[in-house]
Records
---
Amino acid sequence: MHDTDLAHVGGLSYLNPSAPEPYASFIEQIERVRPYLGELERWIETLKHPKRTLIVDVPIVRDDGTIAHYEGYRVQHNLSRGPGKGGIRFHPAVTLNEVMALAGWMTVKNAAVGLPFGGAKGGIRVDPRAVTKDELHRITRRFTSEIGLIIGPDRDIPAPDVGTNAVTMAVMMDTFSMNRGGTATGVVTGKPVALGGSLGRHEATGRGVFITAREAARHQHIEVEGARVVVQGFGNVGGIAARLFHEAGARVIAAADHGATLHNEAGIDVPAALAHVAENGSLAGFPGATPIDIEDFWQLPCEFLVPAALEGQITEVRAPRVQTKIVVEGANGPTTPAADDILKDRGILVVPDVLANAGGVTVSYFEWVQDFSSFFWTEDEINDRLERIMVNAFGAIWRVSEEKQVSLRTAAFIIACHRVLEARAERGLYP
Ligand code: NAD
């Protein structure tokens, strides 16, 4: 795909061009909380208007000497409760609308779990697989320098997301530090451990997905051992969640990534599949399972369905056909609001993204705290604290959902929006 074609990709993952724009989904989710806000309703518009949106041009000299331009974004959706926090996405379908939605979900997620952060997100419309390693390095440096205007350890702290990883964070940290003239480890999280990264961060999101899935199963009287699991996305989130399910004795019967959609009813050998992806870049060609049609994939009978790739995957077309007991949203925004209603009517429990994938930002918070104090914790300490925060957040959200007879998503939004708007109201409007 050429860069000039990208404008036609639309506002969402090219998988589902018919799904609504993600920011429209976010606004609809906020509207659903309106009746529960009491006097704070007066401030609700705050949540619909991102505080700060930066669009940057990222020009680089390509290896062949030509010049290429990429479009990048950093959106600070809300900073009422603390500095902005949220990942950086490198993907060919990134748009401003998508980044706005992702930033909004970060506001809600951080508040739902009780982390002292606002919400932010960033991205570049680039296919990291279509440029060389050196080109990607230059793109990352220039982008960091451009958004350096608004990020910083006490202002806004990026982290990895789709298409970025610890190496990207190392380059971002170095670029920001060079421009500032002093090492600023706390400007990003998800760094390599040698640069002030945290033990357990790499696994944290997948671990959180597994913990919340286990808690949901406990309430539904479903055994994890022997359960069937279907996972879309076999990267940082989906791959690690699949491994933890596998280690707990569940059967991962299907897995999909950008290269393949695979099924094996007897259970995929997850460690072997992960090794295959590490070596080949995708599940394509993995011999331990059979390719199936993507629509059949979404209809496989299972106990846990874990979308862990991109947003807008479970639509009103797919929701009536899904045959799972629990959807655990590893990805951000994988279920559209209309699909959410269908799943609820069908009695399918959805563990929402703002809870299910909050493990990553929780350990990012630990990393940031460790960087500030220059005192590093053991992996056991980190995993214990993560477990406690996730279990407590799940319990609080579950209670509100029972009390108000709403979905877990609406319950999480109720708790989060209260916290954000209370901070907003206490701070008052400037001037
Ligand atoms: P990643 O880049 O490590 O993995 C993404 C996976 O999705 C890969 O397996 C990729 O092949 C797959 N994928 C990409 N396009 C696809 C397509 N068209 N069809 C099917 N699969 C496709 O990214 P990640 O960090 O695992 O992020 C996955 C999701 O989890 C995203 O929604 C992200 O926002 C969310 N998330 C990530 C973190 C984190 O800490 N990494 C935290 C919270 C939420």
---
Amino acid sequence: MASIARGFEELYGRKPEVISEAPGRVNLIGEHIDYSEGFVLPFAIADRTYAAIAARGDGLVRIASHQRKEKIFSIDINDVKPGSKGDWEKYVLGVLWSLGITSGVDIFVDGNVPGGAGLSSSAALECSVAVALNSLFSLGKSKEDLARATQRAENDYVGVPCGIMDQSVSLMGQAGAALLLDCRDLTTEIVPFSVADAGLELLIIDTQAHHALTDGGYAERRAACESVARKLDIPSMRHLTLDALEAQREKITATEFIRARHAVTEIARVLEAVVALRASDFVTLGKLINASHISLRDDYAVSCPELDVAVDAAIAAGAIGSRMVGGGFGGSAIALIKASDIQKTKDAVLAAFEGRGFRKPRFFTSLPSAGASASLVQ
Ligand code: GLA
């Protein structure tokens, strides 16, 4: 945290008023159901994005990052509205906009959440800026308010139709635990997830395959669920059972049927996973994780060859459970493995990727970590 303050000072020639941090996330189970009012079970990872902020007397907004220090992006606060200029800076501008900030600010960010890996680097950036602004301007917003504001920033300012999971866990995650989030009303339950105590490790495999939620596949899946809800006259997939879905099969298309089947079965798997986790029944948890992958691959069709190869190789090497995480079409997979199997699993995945001529994957591990926080600089 000290280096973010130093970086700010070197760049802007004065001290920041607030520094903050927010983590990326891994989703244990509950994929593509946050926008269907489902339950999800993510946890915050150790990698995070840091922000340093100070208010300005004029209406100027300046944004810079450690990675591109030489380029300070400037814009008048009155021009901060959807459709404005900006590249990655839009994630920051969107938060200023959705929180209704009217003052100028200097912002400096730095972080180590791998981008494009499906680990929510964008939510980490949005949330670190949001908690910093909340503190700087004494906005008094709750974590739920901030989750909704940062989601709105991403939906309406950046133009990514994401759900609310990533921002919620980045804000509300707790060390040593997964977060059971009810995406209907953002209520949460902390579910202890002490992998190390059980002699396990959660390996994150970044397939290095392209991942962007703006490509259309994500919006299409979301639209399919909304279409089913309309045709079956229910508010969301949360209100559907497998029996009701079967009984009304002729009202929807074959594709909509399998998309809805994923949503319904995945919501059920999350609740079963919570029971398993509370009982330290990792074998059952592993089976649910595997079933989630199969459903995402076959019914929801958001996997890709790299993710499938990573998952299959990890399972063949003895993983208790493995699946793709996040939006899909690339990004990362997770494998719940015995801690002693880590090298063996990595080697198996590396060999499988090499055999298929894929780019070399990257590996990470992370314990469930704390959510976002901000502090005033003295
Ligand atoms: C992305 C989105 C989330 C969620 C996941 C899939 O990470 O940002 O809102 O929909 O995909 O579970």
---
Amino acid sequence: MRDKIEKLLAEIEQLAAKKEQEIEEIRVRLLGKKGTITQLFDEFRDVLPEQKRELGQVLNKLKVAATQKIDELKVMMEEGMEAEDPQYDLTKPGDNLELGSRHPISVTRAEILSIFNKFGYAIAEGPEIEDDWHVFGALNFPPEHPARDMQDTFFISEGENPVLLRTHTSSVQVRSMENMKLPIRIMCPGRVFRNEAISARAHCIFHQVEGLYIDKGVSFADLKQAILLFAREMFGENSQIRLRPSYFPFTEPSAEVDVSCNICKGAGCNICKGTGWLEIMGCGMVDPNVLEANGIDSKVYSGFAFGMGIERIAMLKWQVKDLRLYFENDVRFLKEFESVV
Ligand code: PHE
């Protein structure tokens, strides 16, 4: 059997370009239902067990070689026919390859992460399907507390610690507090979900990047400085920020961050609705209850957190008026970002 295989291997090597019918004949002779190679596979069933391994390998090699060679011959023949065809113009320039481009959300996420990377923030990721504890409980949202209304979501199970779709990537911060050694300095990018009606300004799926820094002696001044530096890198070196008091269950004090409008430079325009300011994120000092819930001594450590919607940052950066455009994948829209690398 070995001789037969080797002989056939040699024969296949020597096959030159043949006409279509000849090639088909060869294929049938070798690989057809009653073809020589097919028959060898039948014979192979009776081969002694100790020879099976070795012979099996060469036999498979033979089949692959034969199939490849026949395919090659077919291609060569087709190309040859095209070349002879008077309609086939060899001097014609090739078709342009249509290259895609990165999605504006990916571009924006990469830009945000690279700015914070320069400040020493690592990237942490976690599951989109989460439990109640990581999305709410550990972040100081007591059960039934009205603060949960701010982030209604889609529940997958019921019970004491139901499974749900995460409403923010703060859940990854909880997982990082559980697993990482202090100090912690991380950025958490990811997709989040909320039970919201879809409109130009809201969607049930969107993307966030949240940041967390916990160490000894971290202060509100550090938070403000980090955000100011970010705003200047992202929106231009003359950007200003302002903080407005706000409320989040997991931070105390909490603030909403506005950046000076980069379109009218603060004079007031229709993008900033005449105020000169654009809201970009929420932030605050991590509530001691959150640190303690995650096993961190709040008398020794303090930290700050902030979170922003990538769609919103991208809307402000490129003046996109309708959030739904990011999800529709209309090529005309995506093409506008082709030059943004
Ligand atoms: N997790 C908040 C949200 O999704 C954003 C936030 C993060 C606010 C960290 C303050 C601090 O709405």
---
Amino acid sequence: MSELKIAIQKSGRLSDNSHRLLEECGIKFSNGTSVLKTRAANFPVEILFLRDDDIPQYVEQQVADIGILGENMVLEKNKNVAVLEQLGFAQCRLSLAIRKEESYPGLQYFNNKRVATSYPRLLSDYFTENNIKAEIEEISGSVEIAPGIGLADAVCDIVSSGSTLMTNGLREVTTILRSEAVIIGNKKLSEEKKAILDRLLFRIRAVKNARENKYILLNAPEASIQEICRILPGMKSPTILPLAEKGWCSLHSVVKEDEFWERIDQLKSAGAEGILVIPIEKMIK
Ligand code: PRT
Ligand code: ZN
């Protein structure tokens, strides 16, 4: 019987979230630190633990059928693979940064400068598109120390909170790309493998929907219900149940978490009380 080979990062920023995603999809597997691959007990998949840099090539060559990694790496490696789904974690950006004391007149700053990066392809494309002639120093790690040790004038690196740049006396001047984890796939999967992939993607979407939404319960005077439904536009068809106390009811629905937080004050002033917000485990639309 056919099985789908999934490549995930062995150890790094993507590993925990990749494991968790597969586990939340009901895929059970052991993940000893020394193993390079393992089979799931209850789903036809084999999981390969690799360096993220190698995943695009392995998926192109079908050593793995699909892989989970940052979109930044997918674009840098530029292999012939399909991006199948955005996963919403490992959000970051690829940015240019210069020494914080330098003034920045705009992108032309980079003309004739040396820029250190682990993303030479993306950076060189960006400079070409913007008519900048700079020298690119490719280095594989600790890019942010390059200006401090005289290796480069500026850097192009992944930024998340910005604290690494700050600690190294650098400041972000422009963002080249925004990225998050994605699933990539080989473009020529067999029908059998595609069927397994469809089942997996269905589960992944259910997990993603559940993460973005919350189940909400609140009590409110009957007279306020219409107003509350207006405040929470995501709430299409709430369940409304009468409470033992006359003139009051309880309202249950599913809302987007962001929407809920933005509107909590309006809900309270409309008379909502006893608001409960409960995580959803799976949500199938
Ligand atoms: O060993 P392997 O090759 O598998 O892993 P790796 O060391 O190459 O990659 P890893 O685990 O560091 O990152 C994997 C992926 O996580 C990246 O390709 C991005 O898609 C994503 N990601 C998300 C990040 C960050 N956030 C991030 N902050 N990757 C790297 N960083 C680094 C960045 O390089 C810089 O050194 O963190 C520092 C900046 O963080 P802040 O918070 O100080 O701005
Ligand atoms: Zn890597």
